[in-house]
Each structure stands twice: as structure tokens, then as C-alpha cells.
Design a protein that fits this description.
By secondary structure, the chain is α/β, with parallel strands linked by helices. The protein contains 14 helices and 22 strands. The chain has a seven-stranded mixed sheet. A seven-stranded mixed sheet has the order 7-8-9-10-11-20-21, with helices on one face. The mean pLDDT is 94.
Amino acid sequence: MRLGFHGAVGGVTGSCYLLECGARRVLLECGLVQGGDDARQANRAPFPVPAGSLDAVVLSHAHIDHSGRIPMLVAAGYDGPIYTHRATVDLCDIMLRDAAYLQEKDSETENRKRARRGLRRLKPLYTMRDAERALRQFRPLAYDARTEILPGIELRLRDAGHILGSAIVELWLREQDRSRKVVFSGDLGLRGTPILRDPAVVEEADAVLLESTYGDRLHRSRDDSIAELGEVFAAAHAEGGNILIPAFAVGRTQELLYQFARHYDDWGLDHWRICLDSPMAIRATEVYGKHEELYDRETLQLQREAGLRLAAKLEMIRTPQQSRALNRARSGLVIIAASGMCEGGRVRHHLKNLLWRPRTHVIIVGFQARGTTGRKLVDGAAYVSLWGEPVRVKATVHTLGGFSAHADQQGLVDWYRAIRGSPPVWLVHGEDEARAALGRQLRRAAGARVTLPGPGDMIELERLRRA
């Protein structure tokens, strides 16, 4: 029984871990690396083992940094099942098709440039056909049902409270007379997050893979961030400006709409034209509407009392022509657009149109990985490059940390401490500073045996001391 680390170790994208139990191989996550030229090279790197040698794939949730290379895996020869929560199947149907479309489109653009320089053409990472083939291999599961997915390997998904369908992954492994339980946190949500239920408590494990995105900090309170968002609306209205919110199409967009409905009168939203400019976010919001059984009680009540009022106000911007027409509005416009890290999608066009305007307010409401345009804005860059053109940043950039969909350091420690016996923990899905800080806190507060794995590291699970 072995566990290998092949992605999102020392970074927050490209999650990929390999479990081996006897002759069986299970890939846990198959995520796209995001941010900068290095990411393009990393995404074209071979998988840790031949795709055809895998017996199963387990996916914690739909975000592209966890799911985005699955079509490549299928194109490389994987023809087995992909186990995940049923809501994640619905979201991946949107997100993987969208990712394939972008891969094809970006490849066409790049190849036109290469042709002018006499260079050979590049293939897209994967095509729409690859994505559609992959989607046929998804196998939906419900939360809390323990299922044998292979001889000697059982799987249970628990609610992670991060986005719709996000899961904590529990895996029971048996080989001859030995057994081990591996728990992967997935991306853990914050307790008290709107719409979703709190992350489930896990009580037993022999080995824990714990995310560490915000392992080095405590979030500002959500109430403070909500108050600040209201202040931005007031300031932008007084100045006669526009508001641009880069938001992840899945999760963050839906929470923003929740807050808009809840604070409709407080923030004077009658004065604003509110536009959701992301076909993927629109479709994802529709998927959220299909799965109200996963909502918390407060959200169900708000849907009945205030949801219809915002729905009547909200404009769904579906076509490129509708999106371009927004450029004519000089004031009174709120645009929510993907991508959340400003690395693709329509938000980049809006940044090019609005960043240089002093009365623009850009609101950052999610984690920004190193090398991304969003991170440069958060770090106070005077210029950002969009399609090779420098754009002056004269807009006011606000960073609201309280809207994170990830648990902060205290939330991660509290979740780990609920597991009996302080099992050994490997910190993944975090930059090295965040992993190191969380490791120190876990040792101090919980007596944990902490490891910060590197790419390609391998552990022998049967050698772990049982708690």
C-alpha cells in the first residue's frame, strides 16, 4: 500500500495523488495547473503512471485545479470509472466542456501566431470530444454511502462544505491481512458559510492528506467583509463608477448572489444594473438550483423570502455581443465575471476596458495563485499585461478575505483535531509558507506528526504506526 504525491504540493493547483493497493491503482484528483508559462509546460507533462494502468479515479470536487486534466487522462488511454458526488458530475459536465472549448480556442490563437513565425502547430491539451468521452465515465455517488469501488478498496464521500458537491474522501484499503484508512480533506469549507452545510467531522484515519491553502492566516470575519462590500457599493455609487467582481464560476458566484439577495435594500441595489457575465457561472447557478437538498436551512428560507426579487433584477449575459455591449456603460454597472483569478474568460476583457478608469472598483473575493493576473492586482501592480498589452491600474482594488470558500488556519486545525489519535498528516494544496505555518500550528496545538511532501514523494502506508 503506497501513496504518491504528484501535484499541488508547494502550490494550490494541479492536485494529483496516486494510491496503490496490491495490484490496484487509484488516482485521487487529476487537476489542471494554473498560472503562468510554467503551468503550460506542467500540464503537458506525463501522468505519474500510464493512464491505462489505472483502475479508478476519485474526484473530490469540480474545480478545474482538481478535475481539469481528466479529459487528457481519458485521451491517454484511461477507460475506467471516475467516482465523485452526483452534484459534481453535473458541474463537471459544464466545467470540462468549457475548459475544452477554451483549450481549442487558445490553441487556434497560438497556432496563428506560430504559423506567422514558421513554427510547428501545437495541439490543444484536449478537445471537446475528449471531454465528452470523459464525462461518460463519471459515476455519481451520494454523501455518506460506503461503496466498494475495487476489490480491497472502499470509498465514502463526506460533505466538505466548499462548493456544491465537494467531498472529503475516505478510503479503506485492504491487502492480505493489512488494512489502512486514508482520508483526504479535499478543499475544506468554512463553518457557517452561506448556502452549504458545514464540513463533516471525520473521527478515524491512519493517514490524512490535509489542504493548506490558508494555512498561514486567519480570515477576516465574513460579517466584516459583508460590511466592506456594502461600503464599496456606497462609494462607487457616490462616484458614479462601475464595479467589477472577478469570481469563480462555481461557488463564489453563487455566494455573491446570496449576499446580494440578503442585502438588497441595505446596499441600494435598486440603483444598479447587475450583470452575471459568464455562461459557465449561469449554468452552474442553474445546477445549484437543481440541488437544493444540499442547502443549509438559512439559504432555503432566503430563497423563499428574497431570492425572487434579485432574480428579477439580475441580467444573465450569455452572448459575446451582450458582453461587449457592457463596455458602453460608464456608471451604475455591476459585473460578476469569470475567471476568478483573472486568467481567462470574459473578465479579462472587462479588466482591459475598466482597469484604467479611476472610478472603477475591482473587488477580489477569492484566493489568487502566484503568477496570476489576480495576484498581481492584489499585490498592488501599477500595470498588468492583457494580451501582451500593458494596462495601467487606476481602478481601486479591494481584497475581501472573508468570502473565502476555504477554511483558515484555525478551521483546518479544528477539523484535524476531531480525528482521534492525531494520525500522521501530509500537507498539500498550499504554498510552502502556508504549509510550514500550518505544520507548526498542528504540532503545537494537536501534537501532529506533520510532513510537507514534495513532488514525486512516496509513502508506504503499511509502515505507518496505527493510532
